[in-house]
């Protein structure tokens, strides 16, 4: 594997824009961390650059080891709970600091050799040094901790204590090569050559890469072909610092069941240079290719996509299947990246909805209607609501594609549309919500409490906002019955959950 690096940034680049998962260990929020001047007023019993012995007691929400040294907290990338290590102190704040792992003195039985040889540099995975079974246990525990700490909820204990049942995390038999989508930044190496790969942890320095162990091999192959063609056609890579150059990102999406492939080339320019040659080469070299799309992003931004998307060749969508339901997926559609685990997650949501064929179900935050169509197979009628109009167009098309007639969709903010539905007399026996990381809007939670469905199924990608919202629903008369964490993103710190609540009020 070639390991060229992009120019200049040398670790001092801007931090990557990434959704920050919930805080899991006692780590102060970013603001508090940067508010104080370094070192001078630190409580640490040692100095910067000193080597200290650290005992690890936990992991933070982003997978760093939480270490203790002389009564002081040090965050150390790479340490696992139960381990002891020698570490070099890098940065000191009043109550905590950061250190670099030098040598493990005592290792955890949960430690494994990261199979990927760029794990340490890459920002994509955080937990490859941890055995998969231990990752699953840690994810379950992180859900439990959030429910208790943020939600002030009682979790059922192993010793028969009453409370919410939190099941073991549903893992994958083979937790590799699971991603159906790759979005890879393009840049220039020091010698000006076009490279594409990943951002080194915490920076915008691109490291060239051809093989990613959590990526479907077809997507890796697409990226390799795009790189090769870009070389041959002498396409200028985009330079983040100067804003010059053409190719910014490559996105590859594979329908894992259908075998259909979409390539999206994100350019800094309106015109796609050498368009006919691009099309010819990609068609020849990518099996299963159904769609080549250009997206124009000429802004200085961390966002991958701009507003303008056009089909250069082939279809506007690719098709894929989840549990026998077909979905049309366009370049900008949200579609879960781990299809195998998505089926487990959605099946669990349907199970929790306990449908008999008569129920009216609301699916809030429905995206392209994925959960809605799973539900529709067993419900009386499903009402989906979603804020992105294009996603609603996809949802309607997907219902039609599958001959599903008992699902209808409306575009708009769920917290506005649902109260209106209520006024129009749309009642719900079950409400399913699947909000983004920030959780449900308070107005939406109020609407759930006003509609008072017998069951609420909460699908969440962020245990801390989940716990916050469950507290509100509990205070309003719901009882949280059970939680199933599903591992949608093995080797990363992310955890997804499906939760069942039942009306328990008067
Ligand atoms: N249930 C879908 C999508 C979940 S992602 C699936 O599993 O594929 C969350 C979705 O919520 C996104 O599609 C996002 O566009 C949508 N969203 C965000 N804020 C919203 C709001 N206020 N009202 C309705 N939908 C919203």
From TrEMBL:
Keyword field: 4Fe-4S, Iron, Iron-sulfur, Metal-binding, Methyltransferase, S-adenosyl-L-methionine, Transferase
Biased composition (Low complexity): 18-32
SUPFAM superfamilies noted in UniProt: Nucleic acid-binding proteins, S-adenosyl-L-methionine-dependent methyltransferases
Residues binding S-adenosyl-L-methionine: 336, 365, 386, 434
Location of the active site: 461
Disordered, as annotated region: 1-49
TRAM domain: residues covered: 45-103
MF term (GO), any: 4 iron, 4 sulfur cluster binding
An example Gene Ontology biological process: rRNA base methylation
Domain of life: Bacteria
EC number(s) given by UniProt: 2.1.1.190
Annotated InterPro entries: MeTrfase_TrmA_AS, MeTrfase_TrmA_CS, NA-bd_OB-fold, SAM-dependent_MTases_sf, TRAM_dom, U5_MeTrfase_fam
PROSITE patterns associated with the record: SAM_MT_RNA_M5U, TRAM, TRMA_1, TRMA_2
Name of the top EC class for this enzyme: transferase
Family membership noted in the UniProt record: Belongs to the class I-like SAM-binding methyltransferase superfamily. RNA M5U methyltransferase family.
Protein name from the UniProt record: 23S rRNA (Uracil(1939)-C(5))-methyltransferase RlmD
């Amino acid at each position: 594997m070639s390991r060229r690096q992009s120019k200049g940034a040398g670790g001092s680049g801007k931090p990557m824009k990434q959704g920050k998962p919930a805080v899991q260990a006692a780590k102060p929020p970013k603001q508090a961390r940067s508010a104080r001047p370094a070192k001078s007023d630190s409580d640490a019993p040692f100095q910067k650059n000193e080597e200290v012995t650290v005992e690890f007691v936990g992991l933070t929400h982003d997978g760093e080891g939480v270490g203790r040294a002389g009564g002081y907290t040090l965050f150390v990338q790479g340490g696992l709970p139960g381990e002891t290590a020698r570490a070099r102190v890098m940065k000191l704040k009043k109550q905590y600091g950061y250190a670099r792992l030098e040598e493990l003195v005592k290792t955890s039985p949960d430690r494994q050799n990261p199979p990927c040889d760029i794990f340490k540099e890459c920002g994509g995975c955080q937990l490859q040094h941890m055995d998969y079974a231990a990752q699953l246990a840690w994810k379950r525990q992180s859900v439990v901790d959030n429910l208790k700490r943020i939600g002030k909820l009682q979790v059922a204990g192993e010793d028969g204590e009453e409370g919410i049942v939190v099941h073991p995390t549903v893992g994958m038999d083979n937790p590799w090569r699971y991603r159906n989508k790759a979005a890879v930044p393009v840049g220039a190496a020091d010698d000006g050559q076009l490279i594409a790969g990943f951002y080194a942890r915490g920076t915008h320095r691109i490291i060239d890469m051809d093989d990613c162990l959590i990526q479907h091999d077809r997507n890796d192959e697409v990226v390799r072909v795009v790189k090769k063609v870009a070389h041959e056609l002498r396409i200028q890579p985009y330079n983040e610092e100067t804003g010059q150059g053409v190719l910014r990102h490559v996105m590859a999406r594979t329908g894992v069941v259908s075998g259909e492939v979409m390539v999206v080339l994100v350019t800094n320019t309106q015109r796609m240079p050498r368009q006919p040659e691009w099309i010819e080469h990609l068609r020849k070299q990518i099996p299963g290719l159904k769609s080549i799309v250009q997206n124009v992003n000429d802004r200085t931004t961390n966002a991958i996509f701009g507003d303008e998307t056009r089909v250069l060749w082939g279809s506007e969508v690719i098709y894929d299947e989840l549990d026998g339901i077909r979905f049309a997926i366009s370049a900008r559609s949200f579609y879960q990246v781990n299809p195998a685990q998505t089926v487990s997650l959605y099946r669990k949501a349907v199970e929790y909805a306990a449908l008999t064929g008569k129920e009216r179900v609301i699916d809030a935050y429905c995206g392209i209607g994925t959960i809605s169509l799973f539900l529709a197979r067993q419900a009386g009628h499903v009402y989906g609501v979603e804020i992105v109009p294009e996603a609603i167009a996809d949802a309607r098309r997907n219902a039609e594609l599958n001959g599903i007639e008992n699902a209808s969709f409306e575009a708009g903010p769920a917290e506005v549309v649902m109260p209106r539905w209520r006024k129009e007399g749309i009642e719900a026996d079950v409400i399913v919500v699947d909000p983004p990381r920030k959780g449900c809007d308070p107005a939406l939670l109020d609407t759930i409490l006003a509609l008072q469905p017998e069951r609420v199924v909460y699908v969440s990608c962020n245990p801390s906002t989940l716990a916050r919202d469950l507290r509100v629903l509990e205070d309003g008369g719901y009882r949280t019955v059970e939680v199933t964490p599903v591992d949608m993103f093995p080797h990363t710190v992310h955890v997804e959950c499906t939760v069942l609540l039942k009306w328990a009020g008067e």
